[in-house]
Amino acid sequence: MTETMTAWVVRRPGPMATRPLERVRLPVPEPAPGEVLVRVEVCAVCRTDLHLAEGDLAPRRPGTAPGHEVVGYVEARGPGAGRFAVGARVGVAWLRAACGTCRHCVRGSENLCPHSRYTGWDADGGYAEYLTVPQDFAHPLPADRPAEKLAPLLCAGIIGYRALLRSDLPPGGRLGVYGFGASAHLTAQVALAQGATVHVLTRSAAARRLALELGAASAGDAYDAPPEPLDAAVLFAPVGDLVPVALAALDRGGTLAVAGIHLTDIPPLVYQDHLFQERTLRSVTANTRADGRALLEHAARHPLHVATTPYPFERADRALEDLAAGRITGAAVLHIGD
Ligand SMILES: [Zn+2]
Ligand SMILES: [Zn+2]
Question: 210: part of which helix (H) or strand (E)?
Fold first, then answer.
């Protein structure tokens, strides 16, 4: 095996115009005890990668390769890592480690573990030809699906799935989806498969067309009122201005879940207009391995249409620029070793 590899790392976080990503050669990492080395086929691009590149999320480690929607093959196993065979196809997601013993982990909320660690933030991620991952945090993946259609499930799919759970959508309920990027278009399909009526509200005309093709009952502009009151809503756009808009669109007792890791400031809320009548505003923080298993099982039973835009690995910076500019419909996917 070669001893060095190509990777993109966040050198100096800043606006994409300042070229915060740098293409470098790094040593191929060694799997530590309990870890596997993964040869990357593809890595999907998540909005969190953009937040890391632009500095909305402070770096936790200088010069880290982003990327946490990785599909690849186990290339080598560290000491004591017997869960996967060499050659097994695995997925690497955002959650990389949790302590397993704190009050949150013990209650099944490892996403809230104060000692949790994240792929592409605390450790090098999948904008690279290889990465390591603790075997217990890798997801087994089917060998017969195109990598490009699996990768977006690993964060966009999982976080959207958790956001949908957090929105308390009742059976057969009316769901509002604010923003319609990679995560939202998968989440809408999960909700539709569960019998929901889905209303999509987004600034992108191309995304509104995709929403209607996928079965949404309506698709309006981001600040439009949906055609009927909502039982639940998920805010995917990282835009705090939309929080009061979405709260006002809820029916009595409705819940708004904010799916993103970063949100611009929320303007002042007016109690009568936005919260009274037992409307609820909730955040969504990362996700658990159980969320990942549930979403991947759902996708195996109800195949999802995964809208993707492929990019060669050499153009990772271009993919993030296009995401920042709202030019991508569905998920951008970097083709690295497939
Ligand atoms: Zn913990
Ligand atoms: Zn992500």
Answer: helix 205-214
Q: Name the burial class of residue 142, with classes exposed (0-12), middle (13-18) and buried (19+) by CB atoms within 10 angstroms of its CB.
A: exposed
Distance 159 CA to ligand 1 centre (A): 19
Ligand nearest to the CA of 331: 2
Ligand 1 centre to CA of 212 (Å) is: 41
Ligand 2 mean position to 183 CA, how many Å? 9
Å from CA of 117 to ligand 1 middle: 10
DSSP assignment string, 160-172: HHHHHHHTTPPTT
Which candidate, 246, 244, 259, 255, places its Cα nearest to that of 281? 255
Measured in angstroms, how far is the CA atom of residue 98 from the centroid of ligand 1?
5
Q: Are 162 and 221 in contact (CB under 8 A)?
A: no
Please give the model's pTM, rounded to 2 decimal places: 0.93
Task: Report the C-alpha gap between 322 and 294 in whole angstroms.
Answer: 31
Please give the structure tokens belonging to residue 335.
Answer: 């083709």
Q: First and final CA of the chain: distance in angstroms?
A: 17
- Which DSSP helix (H) or strand (E) runs through 157? helix 156-166
> Tokens 């191309």, residue?
206
Per-block mean pLDDT, blocks of 10 residues, the chain (338 long): 90 95 97 98 96 94 97 98 98 97 97 97 98 98 95 97 98 97 96 98 95 98 97 96 98 97 95 98 96 96 95 97 90 94
